[in-house]
Fold each of these.
Amino acid sequence: MWTFVFVCLSISVTGLHGAFTVTVNPSVKVKENEGVDLKCSYTADFGASPRIEWKFKDLKGSQVLIYLENKPSAQYIGRIAMVEGGLRFNKVTRADTGDYDCEVSGNSGYGENTIKLTVLVPPSKPVSRIPSSVTTGSNVRLTCYDADGSPPSTYRWYKENTPLPEDPSKFPSFKNLTYKMNVFNGNLEFPSVSKLDTGSYFCEASNGEGSPQRGDTVNMEVRDVNVGGIVAGVIVAFLAVGLLLFALWFASKKGYLPKKAESKPKQQAVYIQPRADDMDDGDGEFRQKSSFIV
């Protein structure tokens, strides 16, 4: 009976405290060059003096330890401090945007939780790439990019100072246009550009921080394919090849080109049968004499 009661009480206490629980504010936003506290609390199950570590993962996925063994790592000395209930940054920069893991261990228990910190930075003037001249029917892509905005900027395109809708098919005045706009990466693509797409373009970057920023305006002209020019170019190429072949033939006929060296016939050795008088030298001995004519 007592054992049953003890078990019930143990379950009740565990449920009340939430065994080995780490609690954080999952999302924190702060303006650049301002200070911020990253709150991290934990249940009493970890004991009076648990081990606390902080890790940081940036937007590129690189991870570093920023607080361990009750002190900040080398690159964070003077920038952070442990305060009651969390970690304090004296001043943040845009490079501090990322995920912060608060890890707590003690009494054979372990828990962790993550805070997403966003350092707010207004957009800068976006860099855009807009061709000044294209041919009808070709695939054309206009690009726009802001490298500074945090959170990342979204993009809008303008033609003749008029904002282009993200989906032109939903608006009668734009239904004849066939572009595709990606507001997240800044691309404006024409799968098959037409003369209706001729005009001046610029892009705008915004992220809710500060004023939207506009890129340079560039006039894009859509031209028909110059068929006559292509044909003329082919004819000129054929004429050039013909003239080259004629020049080679003429030079060869006049002997201006070096002649191929004639190979000399190989010399052959001819064997001559020795005469009888060459076989007898008078002393009874025969000596064979032979000769070769080359």
Amino acid sequence: MIATISFLVLSTLPTLIVSAETTYGAIAELVSGYSRVFSGERVQLRCSIPDGRRSTWNYLWFKGSKRLEHRAQMLTLKGSLSDSGVFQCQGVRDTAVGNIYTLKSTPVDINVDGGWAILQVPQLPGLVGGTLNMMCRVRGRRQHHEVILYKDGVEVIRQSGFNPQLSLPHLSTEDQGLYTCRVSWDDDRQTHSTISNDIQVNVLEVLTQPVLEVIADNDLLPMDLMKLTCHLQYNARAPAPPVNYYFYKDNRRLGLATSENFDLVKRRPGLYSCKVKVPQLRLCKWSEAEPFEE
């Protein structure tokens, strides 16, 4: 009787099912349409999983914090005003030990416009020294004869003809701001004109000025060493050229160049700084000097 009872208890134990998350994320990208579209225009998003093993994945889609019912790799939006929002995807795979999830993708912002003109700008910010290509689109198949670009309400470009493309070369941080476009066209012997909603354009330095952090009092460091960390933002487009880091004490270089943004050095009083170089882009920037005293 005792043996029978033991068997029944063991057989009712639940199977252990766990959920795990990968270290890589899904990739959500536009495959047709634009990130800003007129109402009635379709947009297609695709979710990709860069696992390198050709595994079979299912796909989860999110609009904001809400999970959608859609589970296919492709997500089609029909262009209703309610389709505006931020979309993300995530991969999920069923295994013997439970579900494995990827990280969520970078958000894709979709804006559905009910107006007559849209200023189309790249999703990625502009970079100092580069060119920003924009397009002033008008609803329907109207042939416009003039396009005007405004920044913060001030005219920047005026061009005649049917070309909707607008370019800002040699970007600087001063080009950052709110942009709109006005488009004019002729129809039935009348001239019509409309202006788009404004859109924020951001312009980033390819390489920001580095900031040196000196860490001396840390239980994880040996008593005679301290850690120098060179913080910066590197915004070059992929594939980005490599960055070299140099560390200095009293303007004298400490060791060789490194691809790491930190170094362990002898704990000594002095003025410390770091230099960052991107040789292929001919960029070089210094941090401010940071004093260290015992």
